[in-house]
Amino acid sequence: MNSTNSEFHGFVKDRYTTLQEAYDRILATKVTARWANSAPAAADPEHDWDRSYEKVRRHLLEAFAETYSYSLQQTLHAMADRVLDHVSTVNEVRLNLPNKHHFLVDLEPFGLKNDNEVYFAADRMYGLIEGTVHRQGVQPVIATGDWITA
To answer: Which residue, 9, 13, 6, is CA-closest to 65?
Structure first.
């Protein structure tokens, strides 16, 4: 979860749209990630799978925390790009990020202002953001790595 540095506005709206635009919002999700390694890495009996897992996980978490998010889709792309930029044996990253909205509580009925301090977490996700990013011109050969939750 990021409690700041996240926006979501300018999206297409119709008469059924209920989501309000946000210029400073809480960004929360449950990350499920899967990645594919290159054939040489997968075939190498000396490849350190535990170290590789920790490295990928660290880059996913750091990218999520450090990205100024204009949308969860943009953050997904930044997370996958960071792994591909820093872990040469990974050829593809698949991410599943449900959007867990937090809504500002209206304190006006109590004569109080809410300066982005009190929120309530929605009881269900509002949208499932999924994407796959891979190196250009490289097809993943052997899928490895576990699903992780961060």
So the answer is: 6
pLDDT digits (tens, 9 = 90+) for 73-93: 999 999 999 999 999 999 999
Rounded distance between C-alpha atoms, residue 72 and residue 76, angstroms: 6
> Residues of 34-61 as b/e, b for ≥16 C-beta within 10 angstroms?
bbbbbeebbeeeeeeeeebeebbbebbe
Strand segments (E) across 20-111: 32-37, 90-98, 102-104
Q: Which tokens in the block code for residue 9? A: 């506005």
Number of H helices, E strands in the chain: 3, 6
Residue 97, SS3 per DSSP? strand
Length of the chain counted residue by residue: 150
Q: For residue 111, how far is the Cα from the chain centroid?
A: 37
pTM of whole model > 0.70?
Answer: yes
Query: For 124-143, b where at least 16 C-beta lie within 10 A, e where not — what string?
Result: eeeeebeeebbeeeeebeee
